[in-house]
Design brief:
4 strands; mainly alpha
């Protein structure tokens, strides 16, 4: 059995067709995903809102408003009032948790002209702010982009200035009612300090990424592609399919031992290919699964075992040419990957709709079970959901093995 295992593993590892589809193809497609989603996660973040602040005499005399603007930006100072045009002002670089990216204009007319001239640019300011009797006034262009983001940004600026106006009015009331409070620096700072009313928390061990669904669906497809190794190896054992199979059938090794060694070699090669592909996704494509790499290996091993059993089952189908068996396996692989959402957002919506209408359909789709196995490790605190998917994969493998073994037992040959 072990000699059969060793020789079959060597033979399968030298087969270019198996290596291309089980190893090279997932890595190439992962690389395509890497370039497709490069910068996608960063693009979904919140960038500082570009705003023009009018640095006129009223601004220079209101130190509290200056500190408020600097606190919302990165602390850049206003330009000199003699600046000819605000277009010569460099936008402050957004750093840390800056809310606004502030540029300065010497007067309201210059700010208005710049706001209108730069409308439609990628980094166009959404509004300009000026002081009128100590109260900030916001002027925004009455237009939005296709996504409505400009209107949302302008609303945020309005809300921030309203916060300042309310705090300034409160400070004026306190100055009249209890001026002694202003001797306490902490009380003065609390007037204009923006409270932290929300806290950013993560509900998962690692930050969720929208792109991981493609990678997990690809792992499901790659697992099924590994069934080609078992398909070709088991076909080589059939006495009526090739001269090699005829010679092996009359050798001193029993059919059960030869089949066990062959399937073990197929499972080893399939698991190794999946592990290499997953390692590439994890360390090169930055697919983060937290501290659950060991559980990921368990999912990969169960996936390759299921694929090996599926390849063996297709190989023993009676009265079907060998070429047609390869076509059957390819069709199953592509169809299963369709409902795992591998082919883009429309197929993801289709897969979600089918899963919602017929939940049992996910239980008979091996690619979905592989994908969901990784999803459960990423989004659940407990590993029990993952073990449930692993159990489904092992049940599939057991059924496929029993069916293929039953078919091989009943085969009798009058002559070879």
């Amino acid at each position: 059995m072990f000699d059969t295992y060793r020789y079959m593993l060597r033979a399968l590892a030298r087969d270019p067709g198996i290596l291309v589809w089980a190893l090279v193809f997932p890595i190439v497609l992962s690389t395509c995903f890497l370039f497709m989603f490069s910068g996608f996660e960063d693009a979904t973040g919140l960038d500082p809102i570009p705003v023009i602040a009018v640095a006129d005499e009223a601004y220079d005399q209101d130190e509290a408003f200056q500190q408020f603007i600097e606190a919302l930006s990165d602390g850049g100072e206003a330009e000199d009032n003699n600046t000819e045009s605000s277009t010569e002002a460099e936008a402050t670089d957004a750093e840390g948790d800056a809310t606004l990216a502030v540029t300065f204009a010497p007067d309201a007319e210059t700010a208005r002209e710049e706001l209108l001239d730069r409308a439609g640019d990628d980094d166009a300011p959404v509004a300009y702010v000026t002081l009128d009797d100590g109260v900030p006034q916001v002027f925004a262009v009455d237009s939005t982009d296709a996504s409505g983001a400009a209107g949302i940004d302008a609303a945020i600026v309005y809300a921030l200035m309203d916060v300042y106006a309310s705090r300034a009015a409160l400070a004026a009331d306190i100055a009249q009612a209890a001026p002694a409070l202003f001797s306490d620096p902490a009380a003065v700072g609390a007037l204009y300090e923006l409270p932290d009313v929300t806290e950013k928390v993560s509900l998962t061990a690692s930050a969720p990424q929208e792109s991981v669904r493609y990678y997990f669906a690809l792992l499901g497809m790659a697992a099924l592609m590994g069934a080609q190794a078992a398909l070709l190896a088991v076909i080589s054992l059939l006495p009526n399919k090739s001269p090699l199979g005829a010679r092996r059938s009359v050798s001193g090794v029993s059919r059960a031992r030869a089949l066990a060694g062959t399937l073990l070699a197929c499972w080893t090669l399939s698991t190794a290919c999946l592990c290499v592909g997953f390692a590439y996704m994890h360390w090169v494509c930055s697919v983060d699964v937290g501290d659950r790499l060991g559980w990921c290996l368990l999912v990969l091993a169960a996936s390759s075992l299921m694929a090996t059993a599926l390849g063996a089952l297709i190989a023993v189908l009676p009265r079907i040419p060998n070429g047609a068996k390869g076509g059957i396996l390819t069709a199953i692989t592509c169809f299963a990957a369709l409902f795992a959402g591998l082919y883009g957002e429309p197929t993801m919506e289709l897969a979600d709709s089918v899963a919602a209408a017929f939940p049992a359909s996910t239980l008979i789709n091996p690619a979905v079970q592989v994908s969901e196995g990784f999803y459960s490790l990423l989004y659940y605190d407990s590993v029990m959901p993952c073990l449930g998917h692993v159990g489904v994969l092992l049940a599939m493998a057991a059924i496929f093995f029993l069916l293929s073994a039953s078919a091989l037992r009943r085969v009798r040959y009058a002559s070879l």
